[in-house]
Design a protein that fits this description.
This protein is an alpha+beta fold and 824 residues long. The chain contains 36 helices and 11 strands. A 6-stranded antiparallel beta sheet has the order 1-2-3-4-6-5, with helices on one face. It has a 3-stranded antiparallel beta sheet with strand order 7-9-10. A hairpin with a 5-residue loop joins β5 and β6.
C-alpha cells in the first residue's frame, strides 16, 4: 500500500483527470505522470474502474481510491466471517464491501458490510459495536434490520444486516415509468421509515437512492444505517478534519449544508437529504448545476448556491411541489420542515388538493385548492349563478374550511416542533450527568423522563405525545417497566383531554395493552384491550387499521394463556379488518392469517388449519417472494397433513419443503433441519424406522445448536429417534435419548406429542420394556396410558398402542415369574 503522501497525490490526480474531457485526458496524464509509468498505470486502473461503475458519481473519487489501495479484502466467496459464510460480493462503497452471506446458525441469508481495516481503530470498532446494539432495536417494515456487528480477527469491523432483494429507488421509478403522484406515494413510505428512526433518536446521515431499495412487491426498504449515529452531543460532530470526513464518509450530492461544513447534525439534515432525493426523482436532475466533481466544489454549491426551482426543469411541478421541495432544501436547518412527518404530511395534503404548509396562505390559493377538489360542483354552480357571486361564496366558504384545516395542521406542527425542540435541547445539553458520557439511548430516555412532566405541564397535548414517544422507545429497548409507566401517563392525559370515547384514548389503551403483553401480564392486558376495542367499534366511521391491530393484540393475549377458542374469533375479525385496511397479500394480513391457522392447530381443528396454510402457500407463490418467509406456512401445512393422517399428500408437501429449504439455506440451515424432522415423522408414521433414524440424527445436530434442550421440537425429535432405535433392536442406544427427552420435556405442553409419540412417559416406558426392565417400565406405562385415555380417548390409536404395551408388560412379567418358579 502506498504511503500517505503518495495516496494523497493519487487522489488529486484522479480527481483532476475526471474533470478533463476524454479527448484531452491522455495528454493530461502525460504531463501529470511524466517519468512515473507505475503511477500512470495505477491511475488508469482507477479510471477504468470509474468507467465500469455506473454509480461512480454517487461516491467521491477518494472512495474508489481507498478501495484500490485496500485491496479486495478478506471476505470472498466461500470464506467465513464469524458465523457467516460468504456467498458473493454485492457492492463496494467508501467504507468497505457488502457481501451476501449465509447465516450458519440461523439458516438465513444476510448482508454483511465489511468495513475497511484502516477504519478499524479501537475507538471506531467500539463505536460500531455500540451502534449495532442500538440500531438492531429498529423494527420498522421499511427499514432493513441490523442484526448486529463485530470485528474480524484481522481487526476489520463488520455489520450483519437483513438481505433485501430489489432495485434502488431511482431505478425502480424510472424503469416502471411511475407518475409524479405514484412517486410521491412511494416516497412517503420512505419518510415514515426515517421518521420512525428519528423517534428512536437515530439519524441516518447518508440518505441517497442507492441506500433505498424497492422490493419486487413495491415496498421501499432503507439500507445501511452503518454510519448512522445516536443523537449524542459527543458524536454528532464529525471528528477530525471536516474535509476528510466529507470525502470519506458521506455521499456529497445528498449531503446537507451543515454536514459539508462539519457543523452538528440533527434530524433536519436527513430532511435535507430526503429533499434532494425527491427533487431528483421528480425532475431527473440534481438541485445544483456543477462545473466539476471535486468534493470542495460540491460542498461550496450545497452551502452557498440556491437550488433551481423544480418547475424550471419540469413545468408540471409548478405550485405546491416547487414550494415543498424548496422548503426541504433551505440552507438554514431551522427554516426547513421541523420533522419528517411534517414534510410527508405536506405531500399528502398536496395529493389530496389541500392547502400545504410550504405555500403562503392566501384566499386565492385556498380557492384554487377548492376548485381542484370540487371541479364538478363548481362547474354546476357556475351554470346557475352569476360568476362573481359564485366566486365570492366559494372563496369565503373554502376560506373557513381552510382555516379549520390550517388550525389543525398548525396545531399538529406546533406539537411536533415542541416535542422535537425538547428532545434536541436535551440531547444537545452536553451535560454528562444527564445523558452519560457514552450517550446511550437508555440514558437519554431516562433524562427526558425526568424532565418531561415539568417542562410540558402547560401543554398536555404535547405532553401526551412525548410520553407515547418515550413509551415506544423504552418498549423497543425491552425496558418494559419504564415503557408501561409512560404508557399509563399517555392514557391518563388522553382521557383528560378527550374524555373516554375518543380514538386517541383507544390508541393509548392499545399501547398499554401491548406492553402488558410484553411483560406477560395477559390477565391485566385483556380488560385494557377490550376497552380500546369497544371505543373503536363505537366510532361513527370505523378505522379498520386500528381495529385490526387491537383485535390482533387481544387475540395474542388470549392465545398466550392457552385460550385458543377465545382467541380465534378475535383473530378472524382482525383479519377481516386488515383486508379492508390493507390488502389480502399485505404482509400484515398474511401474518394474521398464519396466526389463525396456528390457533386452529392448537384447537386440533386440523382440517380448517390445512385450508388456511394451503391458502398462505398459494398467496406467497403469487407474490413470488421465494424467501425464507415462505417456509413457515409449508411447515404448518405438513403438521396439519400429518395430524390428519394424509400421508400421501404430506409426502408431496415434504418434498417441496426439503427442496425449498435446501435451496434457500443449504443443508446446515435450521429450516432444512425442520424439513428433515417432517420427513422423519412421515417415515415414523409408516413404520419405516430404519429410514427415519439418519433423518432425526442429522436434524438434531442442527436443532441442538439453535435451540435450548427443553424446546418442543428438540424434545420430540430426540424422543422419536429413541423410539426408532428401540423398535429396530437398539434399545440400549435409544434409552439415553428417551431419558433426556423425558427430563427436558417436563414443561412441554402434552398435546404437542398427541400424534407422534403420545407422551414421554409411554415412550420411555416402551424403551425400558424392550430392555426387560419391567419394574422401571410399569409406572411409566401405566401413567402414560391413563394420560392418553383421558386426553385422547379410549379408541385413539396411541391409546390403543399404550394399552398393548401394558399387556406386553403383564405377559412378560408372568413369563418371568413362571421361569423363576420352574428354575427353583
Amino acid at each position: 500500500m502506498p504511503d500517505g503522501s503518495r495516496a494523497q497525490r493519487l487522489a488529486e490526480i484522479v480527481k483532476s483527470a475526471l474533470e478533463e474531457p476524454a479527448t484531452t485526458r491522455g495528454a493530461f496524464l502525460d504531463r501529470a505522470c511524466a517519468d512515473e509509468p507505475d503511477l500512470r498505470a495505477e491511475i488508469e486502473t482507477l479510471l477504468a474502474h470509474d468507467r465500469a461503475e455506473a454509480d461512480f458519481l454517487e461516491e467521491p473519487a477518494f472512495h474508489i481510491l481507498a478501495e484500490t489501495l485496500a485491496g479486495e479484502g478478506p471476505g470472498r466467496g466461500g470464506e467465513t466471517i464469524g458465523a457467516y459464510k460468504i456467498v458473493s460480493l454485492i457492492a463496494r462503497g467508501g467504507m468497505g464491501e457488502v457481501y451476501l452471506a449465509q447465516d450458519n446458525e440461523l439458516g438465513r441469508q444476510v448482508a454483511i458490510k465489511l468495513v475497511r481495516r484502516e477504519f478499524g481503530t479501537t475507538d471506531f470498532a467500539r463505536h460500531l459495536r455500540h451502534e449495532a446494539r442500538v440500531l438492531a432495536s429498529l423494527n420498522d417494515p421499511h427499514i432493513a434490520r441490523l442484526y448486529g456487528g463485530s470485528v474480524t480477527p484481522e481487526g476489520a469491523p463488520y455489520f450483519v444486516m437483513e438481505y433485501v432483494e430489489g432495485e434502488r429507488l431511482d431505478h425502480f421509478c424510472a424503469q416502471r415509468g411511475l407518475t409524479t403522484n405514484e412517486k410521491l406515494a412511494l416516497f412517503r413510505k420512505v419518510c415514515s421509515a426515517v421518521a420512525y428512526a428519528h423517534q428512536h433518536l437515530i439519524i441516518h446521515r447518508d440518505l441517497k437512492p442507492a441506500n433505498i431499495r424497492v422490493t419486487p412487491d413495491g415496498e421501499p426498504k432503507l439500507l445501511d444505517f452503518g454510519i448512522a449515529k445516536l443523537l449524542d452531543p459527543e458524536t454528532t460532530t464529525p471528528a477530525g478534519d471536516p474535509t476528510i470526513t466529507f470525502a470519506s464518509v458521506m455521499t456529497p450530492d445528498y449531503a446537507s449544508p451543515e454536514q459539508v461544513k462539519g457543523d452538528p447534525m440533527t434530524t433536519a439534515s436527513d430532511i435535507y437529504s430526503l429533499g434532494v432525493i425527491l427533487y431528483e426523482l421528480l425532475t431527473g436532475e440534481k438541485p445544483y448545476c456543477l462545473t466539476s466533481r471535486r468534493p470542495q466544489e460540491i460542498a461550496r454549491a450545497i452551502a452557498e448556491k440556491e437550488a433551481a426551482r423544480p418547475s424550471l426543469l419540469r413545468p408540471e411541478l409548478a405550485g405546491d411541489l416547487d414550494n415543498i421541495l424548496l422548503m426541504a432544501l433551505r440552507k438554514e436547518p431551522a427554516r426547513r420542515y421541523q420533522s419528517v412527518e411534517q414534510f410527508s404530511e405536506d405531500l399528502r395534503r398536496h395529493l389530496a388538493a389541500l392547502p400545504v404548509l410550504a405555500h403562503k396562505d392566501t384566499t386565492m390559493y385556498r380557492a384554487k385548492k377548492f376548485v381542484r377538489r370540487h371541479r364538478g360542483a363548481v362547474a354546476a354552480v357556475a351554470l346557475v349563478m352569476v360568476a362573481l357571486v359564485a366566486g365570492l361564496v366559494a372563496a369565503n366558504w373554502q376560506a373557513r374550511i381552510a382555516r379549520q384545516a390550517q388550525v389543525k395542521a398548525e396545531t399538529s406542527r406546533r406539537q411536533a416542533d415542541r416535542l422535537n425542540q425538547f428532545m434536541e435541547e436535551l440531547i444537545a445539553s452536553g451535560d454528562p450527568s444527564s445523558v452519560g458520557k457514552d450517550g446511550k439511548v437508555a440514558s437519554v430516555l431516562d433524562a427526558a423522563s425526568s424532565r418531561v412532566d415539568k417542562e410540558m405541564a402547560d401543554e398536555p397535548a404535547i405532553l401526551a405525545r412525548a410520553h407515547e414517544t418515550l413509551s415506544r422507545a423504552y418498549q423497543h429497548l425491552g425496558l418494559y417497566a419504564n415503557a408501561e409507566q409512560h404508557a399509563r401517563a399517555t392514557l391518563a392525559l388522553e382521557r383528560r383531554l378527550h374524555g373516554s370515547e375518543d380514538p386517541a384514548v383507544a390508541h393509548a389503551e392499545l399501547l398499554l395493552g401491548d406492553i402488558l403483553n410484553d411483560r406477560y401480564h395477559q390477565a391485566e392486558a385483556e380488560p385494557v384491550l377490550r376497552r380500546a376495542l369497544a371505543i373503536e367499534r363505537r366510532q361513527p366511521v370505523l378505522d379498520h387499521s386500528a381495529l385490526a391491530e387491537t383485535l390482533d393484540t387481544l387475540s395474542f393475549s388470549y392465545a398466550s394463556e392457552a385460550k385458543p377458542r377465545v382467541a380465534e374469533p378475535l383473530a378472524e375479525e382482525a383479519l377481516k379488518n386488515a383486508r379492508i385496511a390493507w390488502k389480502e397479500q399485505d404482509p400484515r394480513s398474511l401474518r394474521l392469517l398464519n396466526e389463525i391457522g396456528t390457533i386452529k392447530v392448537a384447537e386440533r381443528n386440523y382440517g380448517a388449519a390445512e385450508v388456511i396454510f394451503r391458502r398462505l402457500v398459494q398467496l406467497q407463490d403469487q407474490r413470488r417472494t421465494g424467501g425464507i418467509g415462505s417456509i413457515a406456512p409449508q411447515v404448518n401445512l405438513c403438521i396439519c397433513l400429518f395430524n390428519e393422517g394424509k400421508l400421501a399428500e404430506m409426502e408431496k408437501a415434504v418434498d417441496r419443503l426439503q427442496s425449498d429449504t435446501r435451496r434457500l439455506v443449504g443443508e446446515k440451515g435450521l429450516p432444512f433441519a425442520v424439513a428433515l424432522v417432517a420427513r422423519g415423522c412421515l417415515d415414523f408414521a409408516r413404520g419405516e424406522y430404519e429410514a427415519a433414524i439418519p433423518l432425526f440424527r442429522q436434524s438434531l445436530d442442527t436443532l441442538t445448536v439453535n435451540y435450548p434442550p427443553g424446546q418442543t421440537t428438540v424434545v420430540q425429535t430426540r424422543a422419536l429417534l429413541g423410539l426408532c432405535l428401540t423398535r429396530t433392536g437398539h434399545a440400549g442406544e435409544g434409552e439415553p435419548l428417551l431419558r433426556q427427552a423425558f427430563a427436558d420435556g417436563k414443561t412441554v405442553e402434552p398435546m404437542n406429542f398427541a400424534h407422534t409419540i403420545g407422551n414421554l412417559e409411554t415412550a420411555l416406558g416402551e424403551g425400558l420394556l424392550a430392555e426387560k426392565r419391567y419394574a422401571e417400565a410399569e409406572p411409566l406405562l401405566r401413567s402414560g396410558y391413563d394420560d392418553l385415555r383421558i386426553r385422547l380417548g379410549q379408541q385413539n390409536r396411541l391409546t390403543v398402542e399404550a394399552a398393548e404395551r401394558l399387556r406386553e408388560l403383564r405377559v412378560a412379567e408372568k413369563q418371568t415369574a413362571a421361569n423363576t418358579a420352574a428354575n427353583r
